[in-house]
Amino acid sequence: MAEHSAGLKMGSRLSASEATAHAIPRNHVVPRRYPGRVIAVIVILILALQAGKAVATNPNFHWEVYAEYIFSPTVLRGVGWTLLLTVVAMGIAIPLALTLVVMRESINPILRGAAWCWVWFFRGTPVYTQLAFWGLFAVLFPSISVSIPFGPELVSIESRWIVTPAVAAIIGLSFNESAYLTEIFRAGFRAIDPGQIEAAQAIGMSRPKIWTRILIPQAMRIIIPPTGNETIGMLKMTSLVLAVPFTLDLTFATNAIANRTYLPVPLLLVAATWYLVITSALMVGQYYLERYYGRGQGPVLGKGGQH
């Protein structure tokens, strides 16, 4: 009976609490309104529509010429060569930059000095000048030979068969880019807590293992965004390979058609369209790489916060 009466008292207390909770009026939260945002969106939409109409209806843009050449074989070949130059140059620049970072962080002063000189030279001279030099390599050094020091030549090959315009363009682009990537990678590695390196050394890990298991995986989160920007910059830097001269890239292909048709504007739009398409694809890839290596690092800026 005592337990039953206690249960009734508890039930009555709960009922009273529920009734009190229902009796208390809840605050009706009204979201703050931002009329300025609505006005700004309307103004931007109006300006965008007006600009789009002005461009679409302007006969001086020669959209019929744009439609004729946007998928022409010459332009598509230029797109292919531009992609090839970008991928190969970055594929060489990235491991070269990693090697230079290891040299910059080495305890050997000769390696540190050599890496510093490399970065100093290729960052300090214009990429156009470097490309022009590599284009003149066969003139400066007509042959490449392997010989015994102060002895006879073993092998000799004409430079023009090795340093072709495509090879010269790739060497010039990749060497220049490696200098910039070296500083990006070095900043990413230095952002890691030195205590982790000391702990790894304390348990007897070798320097290669420290780099591959501790430094590189953690630094990827910091390195990927600027490296993505450098890749997009490399895509557009391929337009300078005319200095070699290399004449198969997208910019040269569209310029050649423009010079033949005396209509530069639609061909500039063709080149701009393809650069935008490729850049958009690279940005999507960069986004997924950042999301993969940023797992466990908290929400992305602009998400999950109060504004």
TrEMBL record:
<feature type="domain" description="ABC transmembrane type-1">
    <location>
        <begin position="79"/>
        <end position="286"/>
    </location>
</feature>
<dbReference type="GO" id="GO:0005886">
    <property type="term" value="C:plasma membrane"/>
</dbReference>
<feature type="transmembrane region" description="Helical">
    <location>
        <begin position="264"/>
        <end position="289"/>
    </location>
</feature>
<feature type="transmembrane region" description="Helical">
    <location>
        <begin position="79"/>
        <end position="102"/>
    </location>
</feature>
<dbReference type="Pfam" id="PF00528">
    <property type="entry name" value="BPD_transp_1"/>
</dbReference>
<protein>
    <submittedName>
        <fullName>Amino acid ABC transporter permease</fullName>
    </submittedName>
</protein>
<keyword id="KW-0813">Transport</keyword>
<dbReference type="InterPro" id="IPR043429">
    <property type="entry name" value="ArtM/GltK/GlnP/TcyL/YhdX-like"/>
</dbReference>
<dbReference type="InterPro" id="IPR035906">
    <property type="entry name" value="MetI-like_sf"/>
</dbReference>
<feature type="transmembrane region" description="Helical">
    <location>
        <begin position="162"/>
        <end position="181"/>
    </location>
</feature>
<comment type="similarity">
    <text>Belongs to the binding-protein-dependent transport system permease family.</text>
</comment>
<dbReference type="GO" id="GO:0006865">
    <property type="term" value="P:amino acid transport"/>
</dbReference>
<keyword id="KW-0472">Membrane</keyword>
<keyword id="KW-0029">Amino-acid transport</keyword>
<keyword id="KW-1133">Transmembrane helix</keyword>
<dbReference type="InterPro" id="IPR000515">
    <property type="entry name" value="MetI-like"/>
</dbReference>
<dbReference type="GO" id="GO:0055085">
    <property type="term" value="P:transmembrane transport"/>
</dbReference>
<feature type="transmembrane region" description="Helical">
    <location>
        <begin position="34"/>
        <end position="52"/>
    </location>
</feature>
<keyword id="KW-0812">Transmembrane</keyword>
